[in-house]
């Protein structure tokens, strides 16, 4: 696989996972941007696959969503991710104790 295709694939995975997890947690762009300390515009670019996110951005998104960063890039990942204990936005209905 050529480098450009690999980068495009990673952007797509990050976009899909971020969008899916944000929606599953009932977070607005504003709420997730605040949690991750990112601008709303940058977050929107990530969700449409137009941003080259740094490792720092990946870590910030993961922290804001309450998941491990690997969840955001995992190939074929359809799971909603695992909430970390005490993660922001966690609800009792998430099935975690």
How is the topology of this model organized?
Layout: H1 3-24, H2 29-36, H3 40-47, H4 55-65, H5 69-73
Helix pairs in contact: 2-4
Brief characterization of the structure:
With 97 residues, the chain is mainly α. It has five helices and no strands.
What characteristics describe this protein?
97 residues; mainly alpha; 434 Repressor (Amino-terminal Domain); 5 helices; 56% helix; 0% strand; globular; disordered C terminus
| Name of the CATH homologous superfamily | lambda repressor-like DNA-binding domains
Number of domain modules: 1
Unreliable stretches covering 5 or more consecutive residues: 90-97
Looking at the structure, the CATH topology is 434 Repressor (Amino-terminal Domain)
**Helix count, per DSSP?**
5
- Rg, nearest Å: 13 Å
Please tell me the CATH architecture by its name.
Answer: Orthogonal Bundle
Order of helices and strands: HHHHH
Q: Let me know the average pLDDT.
A: 83
Query: In the CATH hierarchy, what is the class?
Result: Mainly Alpha
Number of strands: 0
First-last Cα distance = 42 Å
So what's the overall shape?
globular
Into which percent range does the helicity of residues fall? 55-70%
* Major beta-sheet overview: none
Structural class: mainly alpha
**Which percent range describes the beta-strand content?**
under 5%
